[in-house]
Design brief:
Blueprint (H helix, E strand, L loop, with lengths): L5 H7 L1 H14 L6 H14 L3 E5 L2 H11 L7 E4 L5 H9 L3 E4 L14 H4 L4 E5 L10 H11 L4 E3 L7 E2 L2 E2 L6 E5 L13 E5 L2 H11 L20 H11 L2 H18 L21 E4 L3 H10 L16 H4 L9 H6 L3 E4 L7 H17 L1
Parallel strand pairs: 2-3, 2-4, 5-8
Antiparallel strand pairs: 1-9, 6-7, 8-9, 10-11
Helix pairs in contact: 2-9, 3-9, 4-5, 4-8, 10-14, 11-14
Length: 366
């Protein structure tokens, strides 16, 4: 049994993927080829945003967004400690300092009620993460940010395709960012990412930043980086985008079925807000005795993963610097309790039944 099944997906769209890649090999425009412009247009239409800027990774998407907003030395960016390192890492790379704020205990996303306490005269941006497949409460977060005149960057690396109050992830804030890492709900065959905005000036800035800061050839009015999305990855994403809605629906069916099977298993299943849908980038449970449960699942041949065992606030790179943070008791507690089960659109009911039975037994015996 696979934790994710990229091979199954490839078999379904093999002809389309190969045709798209062959077209790139034939025209030879491996950087900034026509597939990139086509992908950007389709992704903007999909999310309901005015502009999409394809970039080299989800990490670079966050960094480019911060740079476009002018975040730099002496600034603070508020974010969650319960996320992948890239979220906090890019704040440091931009020259700013992260300020960690605790999470909602049900959704694992940034708790809007904790934001006001964290804002200072140094706060330059707020970066919530839409974790495990569902969006953070972006209206509440945007409301706080608006009162203080602070832009918001949604880290939608795990939620691309999800709905928040009938609006798409990555269309919910000043800038939305996502990742096309292969294991993401919409994944390339290598690294990739995108930034989304309705602001023409920000879109122009982000396009320049991804091209070494140039506004025309050999003219560089700003600091930038090599942050372009390869044409071949754009071609792969175009092939995958054709079946993305089907896969999002399949993920929802798998996630909902897991929750029914595990309703009485003695563990905490994912909580999805009534106004949200989830793309289930991960299907994540909580248990009080994780190590024992994971050991029993491993013995039963069930692959698992832990996202994330150490909050960013306790990672050495942040801990040594002594950055400011608010009470993080929820994130600290949940980092010792969460783990994820196999999750992908092609997971069979037979395999789900096997996983659920193993979880029920492991929890009961631990």
């Amino acid at each position: 049994m696979n934790f994710i099944d990229l091979q199954g997906q490839y078999r379904r769209i093999e002809d389309q993927v190969n045709s798209r890649i062959r077209a790139v090999l034939e025209h030879g425009r491996y950087v900034n080829g026509p597939e990139l412009a086509e992908l950007e247009q389709r992704l903007a239409e999909y999310t309901g945003t005015t502009y999409c800027v394809g970039v080299s990774s989800g990490t670079d998407a966050l960094l480019i967004a911060l740079m476009a907003l002018g975040v730099g030395a002496g600034d603070e960016v508020i974010t969650t400690p319960f996320t992948f390192i890239a979220t906090g890492e890019t704040i440091l790379l931009a020259g700013a300092e992260p300020v960690f704020v605790d999470i909602d205990p049900r959704t694992y996303n940034l708790d809007p009620d904790k934001l006001e306490e964290a804002i200072s005269d140094k706060t330059k941006a707020i970066m919530p993460v839409s974790l495990y497949g569902q969006c953070a409460d972006m209206d509440a977060i945007n409301g706080v940010a608006r009162r203080h005149g602070i832009p918001v960057i949604e880290d939608g690396a795990q939620s691309f395709g999800a709905l928040y109050k009938e609006r798409r992830s990555c269309s919910l804030s000043t800038i939305g960012c996502t990742s096309f890492f292969p294991s993401k709900p919409l994944g390339a065959y290598g690294d990739g990412g995108a930034c989304f905005t309705d602001d023409e000036g920000l879109a122009k800035s982000m396009r320049e930043i991804r091209e070494h800061g140039q506004d025309r050839r050999y003219h560089h009015p700003r600091l930038g980086l090599n942050g372009r999305l390869d044409t071949i990855q754009a071609a792969v994403l175009l092939a995958k985008l054709d079946l993305f809605d089907d896969e999002v629906a399949a993920r929802a069916r798998v996630g909902d079925r897991y929750s029914r099977l595990l309703a009485d298993a003695g563990c905490v299943t994912p909580f999805i807000e009534l106004y949200n849908t989830s793309v289930y980038a991960q299907y994540t449970l909580q248990v009080s005795n994780r190590d024992a449960v994971l050991a029993r699942l491993a013995d039963a041949g069930i692959p698992t993963a832990v996202h994330y065992p150490v909050p960013l606030s306790r990672q050495p790179v942040f801990l040594a610097a002594g950055f400011r943070s608010i009470d993080l008791s929820v994130a600290e507690r949940l980092s010792d309790r969460v783990f994820s089960l196999p999750m992908h659109p092609y997971l069979s009911e037979e395999d789900q039944d096997k996983v659920a039975a193993a979880v029920i037994a492991a929890v009961a015996e631990s």
